[in-house]
């Protein structure tokens, strides 16, 4: 079903900026990997490189026996379908209803005429409703996507990923604009995709306690390079300070940025 | 001028009714024809669709060139080519609307959000599918509003086209004015006002019905 994802010295430069600087990673099937790092550390760029929304300047990415960086045309679109991606801003079409937004995940299978007419088969609609039902969103199927809350929109985006029959899940800061309750729901959905379907999940996160709670493996990036690669237990305070380069911050308190309900209900006061 | 004339026989009024109908159909056909040609052109002129700068700027200067000819001037030209009647009126409206619509549509296309389109790209949609599902739902309401308003505006400017001989109610109106039949002229103006009012009312209903409901998959 799924295969190992291997990044081999992948770089992406924007002008003189090295957004991703020769990153090599080997991600085994079924791993739940959290990517952390400062804003601008190259986390988003790395996910976009894997999905091929952008092309690498150098290096190669492979999934099983497939060389992702060499894909073109239909094969490239099939790869994008296989590695579903969700975004911080959900990227749904506000004016279309929820069901259509989910069915969009089936478009890679459609020819010109059926997609221009927005025509989907009953089997596809059943699949979409099942995916929505799995995320408790089936009752909202006929509502416009724009009228939903952020957390609901993100779950619709995950349902879309499910109907794509994904093989690997990429999530670009999926909970960064959600409240704690919705953030938990979205993370639980990703965990179920990982544990029940056995799929690899790669998620960019800003909240360290979320990364610790959900991820088998944490990869930290700084200035486009991988700074740390290990388990949550190996991610000590010293390492965290290195990753975020908390210059001037005497103390670095995870609870202050936490969006979790369980942990850190009473965050320590920020030193004046 | 007052009181306005009230036509006593159907024979008299039918001429006026035919003129009004002609103006209405000229505006309708002209707007539709203009929009049908402008829509594909507007994609060529939108920065986020057509990334070839030379072609895009060329197309945009093309819109400007067309807009430089006022509808009235176009009508005079087409009357020379096709003779008096509604055909030059329709063509004059259509051609001048190509320039206006193409500009307004392409700006609406440029003002759309990239995010839904990126959402599709990431799930394997082709460029055309991205435009169909990510972009068109965003621009459709704008296109509809522009179409309805310009249809109404063309009904009004259609009156002027009639005065220069391109068919419709304007011809009858100028005829009455030159014959000093002010009571009849006033009645015609009154009917034009009612017609514009009705169009505005109906387009409001149409907008609500179409934009109010969402585009659902079949």
From TrEMBL, chain A:
GO MF, one annotated term: ATP binding
Keyword check for Transport: yes
Entry-linked PROSITE patterns: ABC_TRANSPORTER_1 (PS00211), ABC_TRANSPORTER_2 (PS50893)
Keywords: ATP-binding, Cell inner membrane, Cell membrane, Membrane, Nucleotide-binding, Translocase, Transport
InterPro entries linked: AAA+_ATPase, ABC_transporter-like_ATP-bd, ABC_transporter-like_CS, ABC_transpr_PhnC, MetN_ABC_transporter-like, P-loop_NTPase
Residue span(s) of domain ABC transporter: 5-248
Keyword Hydrolase: no
Protein name: Phosphonate ABC transporter ATP-binding protein
Organism for this UniProt entry: Thalassovita aquimarina
Upper lineage: Bacteria, Pseudomonadati, Pseudomonadota, Alphaproteobacteria, Rhodobacterales
